[in-house]
Design a protein that fits this description.
The structure is a homotetramer. Chain A is α/β, with parallel strands linked by helices. Helices cover 40% and strands 24% of the residues of chain A. In chain A, helix 6 runs parallel beside helix 9 and helix 9 packs across helix 12. Chains in contact: A-B, A-C, A-D, B-C, B-D, C-D. Strand 13 of chain A pairs antiparallel with strand 12 of chain C, so a sheet runs across the interface.
Amino acid sequence: MVTVGIIGAGRIGKVHVESISTKVANARIKMLADPFIREETAQWAKKMGVAHVTKDYREVLADPEIDAVLICSSTDTHSPISVEAIRAGKHVFCEKPIDHDVAKIREVMSALEEHPVKYQVGFNRRFDHNFAAVRAAVDAGKIGEIHIVKVTSRDPEPPGMEYVKVSGGMFLDMTIHDFDMVRYLTGCNATEVYVEAAVLVDPAIGEAGDVDTAVITLKMENGAIAVIDNSRKAAYGYDQRVEVFGSRGMAAVSNDTASSAVISSAEGVTGEKPLHFFLERYMDAYAKELQYFVDAIENGTDTPLGVVDGLEPVRMGLAAKKSLAEHRPVKIAEIG
Amino acid sequence: MVTVGIIGAGRIGKVHVESISTKVANARIKMLADPFIREETAQWAKKMGVAHVTKDYREVLADPEIDAVLICSSTDTHSPISVEAIRAGKHVFCEKPIDHDVAKIREVMSALEEHPVKYQVGFNRRFDHNFAAVRAAVDAGKIGEIHIVKVTSRDPEPPGMEYVKVSGGMFLDMTIHDFDMVRYLTGCNATEVYVEAAVLVDPAIGEAGDVDTAVITLKMENGAIAVIDNSRKAAYGYDQRVEVFGSRGMAAVSNDTASSAVISSAEGVTGEKPLHFFLERYMDAYAKELQYFVDAIENGTDTPLGVVDGLEPVRMGLAAKKSLAEHRPVKIAEIG
Amino acid sequence: MVTVGIIGAGRIGKVHVESISTKVANARIKMLADPFIREETAQWAKKMGVAHVTKDYREVLADPEIDAVLICSSTDTHSPISVEAIRAGKHVFCEKPIDHDVAKIREVMSALEEHPVKYQVGFNRRFDHNFAAVRAAVDAGKIGEIHIVKVTSRDPEPPGMEYVKVSGGMFLDMTIHDFDMVRYLTGCNATEVYVEAAVLVDPAIGEAGDVDTAVITLKMENGAIAVIDNSRKAAYGYDQRVEVFGSRGMAAVSNDTASSAVISSAEGVTGEKPLHFFLERYMDAYAKELQYFVDAIENGTDTPLGVVDGLEPVRMGLAAKKSLAEHRPVKIAEIG
Amino acid sequence: MVTVGIIGAGRIGKVHVESISTKVANARIKMLADPFIREETAQWAKKMGVAHVTKDYREVLADPEIDAVLICSSTDTHSPISVEAIRAGKHVFCEKPIDHDVAKIREVMSALEEHPVKYQVGFNRRFDHNFAAVRAAVDAGKIGEIHIVKVTSRDPEPPGMEYVKVSGGMFLDMTIHDFDMVRYLTGCNATEVYVEAAVLVDPAIGEAGDVDTAVITLKMENGAIAVIDNSRKAAYGYDQRVEVFGSRGMAAVSNDTASSAVISSAEGVTGEKPLHFFLERYMDAYAKELQYFVDAIENGTDTPLGVVDGLEPVRMGLAAKKSLAEHRPVKIAEIG
């Protein structure tokens, strides 16, 4: 039984409370820390079996019973709290991104070299049943040598403008998941990125200095070409598809729906829209990534994604920003 | 080059004129006969390359250059003209059903014994790409021993009431195609039929003594169970599906559509309705059945369906009528 | 918070332990009773939060803290324990079938008249996301007046011969779920049943006096015709589909799969097989039915299916057996 | 009735002979010209109703009865014969590409200004049922404002190396169809192109100075971003899909197959591979483009694609080559 403390009681923090309480049998949550925690949330947490609620995350780090912490606080605190937690000898599960600044991530890496605890980054999509099935097909050799990878990733609606302004831009906030997906599916790093992007969804996003629509092309170490298409708003909901094409064939997945019901009528043959957004689509994946993390601690094995898996997508995102700014292909090596 | 005469210039007669003119390279139409042929139709036929138009089908039978006749006249004339044509030494392609009366079909069989010309019945659906693919899977052993056959056959709209009254009833008019399909897919005859039927589409059909909705269960010689479901009106169009289930698996086909376009929007994910009705759905099958007929003549081989394939579905239809009337399972052997 | 006792620690009893422990927030299990409970199971139960394990179900009924019992013991004990529990003032969730004998079910009904506790029967498929979506389409009027209902229900493999012998026959063991499904989808009772059945999967099943393949036609009170096709063995796995066809259109569902991954290769375009069997396919439905049961207790509302919903499918099953034995359509009114 | 001469009796010339003979009712072929025509082809042409066969295309241009010519000769002759034919007052249907050299295409444009005959370029895919349905959805406003266009275009096998060497490179030979598709679907021109490409299928293609795998990003005049992915070899056959995504939704099409048959077995659920290559997939589109051309002549209306539709994809292809060579985004305006 692994004893866990959770730092941050926002949306994703609550998802993790629920996952551990109901789906991860070999873990329990001893403490939940959030400086702004609401009474309502605290009560809910207790009902979910959380023993103690605090405003100070340092309490979590100081508790000798706590084996591991989940860092779900605001993005700017991910890397400093990671370092603190590592130094306190806690295993760390850190939400993505570790930081927008490569130097800060390297500090986490240094801390890990000194204190080799388990470290996992929250790229939950790797644990989705569909994407895992594509990866399994790749691993089984069914696709052969990979030639082209396509990732479609479109949100049902843009985030609020306050969030857009602090998000680090679409590439570091949204595409970062797709950068990880490309690495996951190909099993290698990107060497170069080229971005074509535009503001087509909402002019306010453009005014905030960001884009909302993009096609991003990547050259991969293994010679494959990857392409990601992003939109901040798909009228039909959360569009999350991938396709891997290679010398022996193709693996592709379609969106998940609430049911397979299809209505045939005078108007046409109509199925359901994709599950609305990430909480609906990836709920199982959120639980599964924690199960892997907890199992890695219990069994003394590697976590499925380490700190380098947190670093590379940030480099790709920074290279994408540079590509857009300078209107040219940018090598990943140009970044940090 | 096979020289053909066509008797009957109604809807299906015209389909055959067009098929032979444009798609059957080794046949030409010398004569088209219809007592009520309209000037407009005669002109159209000439443009399609028909050499001669007549009101008297006997002209067709008398022409020594004509190798084969297609009988597309009204149902009550199918069997007498078949006999005449056979006796005149013509190969015969006869639209379904040969007759509603088994004795009349047996007369055609007798004529064929005396004059062994080629004889083919117009069960066009055997030549449809989808159903042929299911049959090919069965033949290739992919389904194993057949256990259950399901045929869904629903029209987009009921025929006019005048037609309903002379049609011989839904089982001999519409289900007859499905009876043939079951024989085609299983490669054997039915031994027993049970009907559950109702008038749910239009009370006028009931007043005319017919039904418009039915589920028909069949016991097959090879032990399989077949079930057909029929409706005279599907709001979404012509529904033509089959499924063959056996010891090794299942083969199933879905409907054909005009395109594979799917629109995803706030309203759902919508594809096209099935092709509207038999002329849209089976146009290629109509041409293909004639190609097989013409090739059988040219090559001196068997036609893909002979007179017995015209007889059995009629017996099944008559047994179905008896089952409905007497509310019990009826053996095919009880019929003629 | 509803306090629950579970009687029976077999496969389905364990499923309910897990569902309540992890997915039903407003219920807790105080006791688990099974005369043959293994030490291993008892330990597992404690880890799942079950406070007490016993060999005597009467302990459950005697405990005044327990509000409700789930009866998951062997079929022959369902009705007597139901009656005992009702008389003890416990709300009852009873696995299907309540009994194979209509008279025994009527005893449960009598007990309920005297002690009107909540009573729910375990027809879990009503809580499946796919079937519920079809029912929702029916309720929303999208199908119009129902004309034809089709249920395909095929197991991946037949049960062991020991089980076959005590199962009451395929219609009471397996088809009973489909009988319930037809009632659920149409919202009305059947009036007549006709069975065509055979032994095509395993001769041993025939030697045990049962069948393994069937097509069952039903006449419904609302005029619709329903047809169920069953097989004890589908090579490709658990096949669970329904289709409702009516005056305005059709609603249909396909099977669930572990992922939507499709591999295109030189061999074809291949998707996954259906989820293997009921534990994989209906795990969520098992939790949902209990949530409804617990909520009905908490809120003092009706359970989603009452004792009559347990009775009718048994009558349909007995009528089906009679139809097979006497080779004729049988009215449900002929049964009890 | 439009009288046609066909110049070139290679593969595509024969397709057009067959289309006009069997599917275009209001046209007839008076002459077929090819300097290397084989006796076998000449005989076949006569059987298809071609009145006269010649080795000298000038005979076609000189025949006053001939209204229109189809130019199906080798690519290097497309533009000079176009000019000659236009000057001879013939309407012209010219296979793609008109030329690899923009200056040569401009000569054709000049000739057309002096002699305003009908001129149509053979981008057959615009007449495919699937792509036309997507375009219809766009025109009907179902997609709203277009944001992203995706075209997948993969051949089942690379052409022979002799052909590769004279093809002008993959972008002018293969992608040119996709460039046209992007223009067709968006209804506007591209302004910039960026290419990521590689040799992953066959090193010999690289040795010949060409690529066989590419992802091509395009900026469109209307603000949309388009992306094409190409491969010279898909193990599962000819992959021809498009997707248009916009403010109101998405329209997408899948590949055509010979049948909708799906086999479910212990191995999985397997449908057919896409139709093998362009002759199978686009046979109807080839006939339809000619029907439009002939109708434009008969009715004095515009052809569905004029000479500018022949020019723009060549400019896009040349820009793509430049992008690949110079490893940077290239404006279409940089080309001719």
